[in-house]
Prior knowledge:
2 copies of one chain form a homodimer.
Chain A: H1 13-19, H2 28-31, H3 38-47, E1 51-54, E2 59-61, E3 69-75, E4 78-83, E5 89-95, E6 100-101, E7 114-117, E8 121-127, H4 128-134, H5 140-165, H6 168-185, E9 192-194, H7 199-206, H8 210-222, E10 226-229, E11 232-235, H9 238-245
Antiparallel strand pairs in A: 1-8, 2-7, 3-6, 3-8, 4-5, 4-7, 9-11, 10-11
Helix pairs in contact in A: 6-9, 7-8
The first copy, chain A, binds a DNA duplex through α8.
Amino acid sequence: MNPIPSSRDSGSSLQARLKATCATCNLRELCVPGGVSPHDLDQLDTLVATRRRVRRGEALFRAGDGFDSLYAVRSGFFKTRLTSEDGRDQVTGFQMPGELLGLDGIATEVHSVDAVALQDSEVCTIPFTDLERISAAFSPLQRHFHKVMSREIVREHGVMLLLGTMRAEERLAAFLLNLSQRLRARGYSASEFVLRMTREEIGSFLGLKLETVSRAFSRFQEDGVLEVSNKNIRILDFQALRNLVGVDRGGGQ
Amino acid sequence: MNPIPSSRDSGSSLQARLKATCATCNLRELCVPGGVSPHDLDQLDTLVATRRRVRRGEALFRAGDGFDSLYAVRSGFFKTRLTSEDGRDQVTGFQMPGELLGLDGIATEVHSVDAVALQDSEVCTIPFTDLERISAAFSPLQRHFHKVMSREIVREHGVMLLLGTMRAEERLAAFLLNLSQRLRARGYSASEFVLRMTREEIGSFLGLKLETVSRAFSRFQEDGVLEVSNKNIRILDFQALRNLVGVDRGGGQ
DNA sequence: CGCGAGCTTGATGCCGATCAATGCATGTGG
DNA sequence: CCACATGCATTGATCGGCATCAAGCTCGCG
Lengths: 253, 253
């Protein structure tokens, strides 16, 4: 009556322990769906030599840990959790057997979330450099591409934190700081810019109605944080915005 | 005073038009940061032969379109937008010059979002099969890995839609249906299962407080949609859950 | 058996949605 | 050049859903 036993193959545990391979893994269809040749599968097996047990409540990895491996859940159950600098928590996903953990780490080679076991669990460790080598993907261009994809995943974690934990003004502050930083990276002013999108589109991104976005702009203007004229924005007080978001306390712009 | 001119290099437009290359692109540091060899850069140039203009309001691609290329924004501004079956909209991001569009399409070879230009824009087209070939990544294993990453991006879009547009009971319904479907894919019952996480963790994932999660469970039970006993869940009325989420109207379980 | 973590349920308050009116910029046709 | 339409933004009034605060309750576990 327990639909998720912590170890699915405990019945044949001896054989499983001695020579479990990707080719014979009963999670294979989930973890490595069709189209992968037997040859590649063999190679994958040479990677996934090591297993690791993680006890309930323990972390497989933590935000800030260096990244070197991906992990496939073999048995058990995990959550991934993003914690912002001011202590807000957002669970970004739950992972069950056959699902992958650690993609967030590829971008910067440092993990950005905690992966915590919700019950005693076991994972297959997939060393990432080996994976790239075997995939015939050991090219700087390829690596770059992987990082871009991982960065997108990390970005979306940040949006989830915003949508899950922030109030209207905090969301708008985070949005403006993000925009400002990306414009600066492109050689434009970080403090003065033109919004290319409507209030309604900002609202749709931030999970708010356009009236709420408009009111937040007005309030920022009243408080001397922004100058707002239609789509023209000037940021007067970066620190006020940062305090709202709960990031980068103390750093002057 | 306009910090984001729609075309940055209109001053040297003749040369830019005739032989713009990745190697000379003024967005290169954003689009292809260091570590990529001159040789790879040349190869990249052979890919990115075609440009495409997209007028304000037009779509670069739409959800449902077949995927074959990624796009780098060269000038202008885009939004990506996910629309659920019952018409909810969630903007999943805004893209400015040097940023990439289309990663959502790798997973299933069909785009899952609309990419709409917020102003007259230009993109560089990067045919994906060519990219994989040049990256020395034309291996089934590698392709699979790319799809896994893309699938994660698409999943997170779904979570953003949930967090941005749904009310408490709708969120919980979506969560339960998702869990149910993943358990079924692993050979477990879709209608009867044990939650491995606490109400608080569910709440943190769904952007709700634990009391709200608990109340939603109670209400589902009152309405005969679920049987709830601590962490043991039995789904009695799938269609009721689907109706809340606004997905899959009419399909029987 | 008794403790404590996790859950349920109730009462109240607040934030943001909703509904509604007005303002303002842009564009179009007379 | 003005009259008018249209899309977008602002602001106010009211409402509702969820957070918050506060008890109790249940179950698993030492």
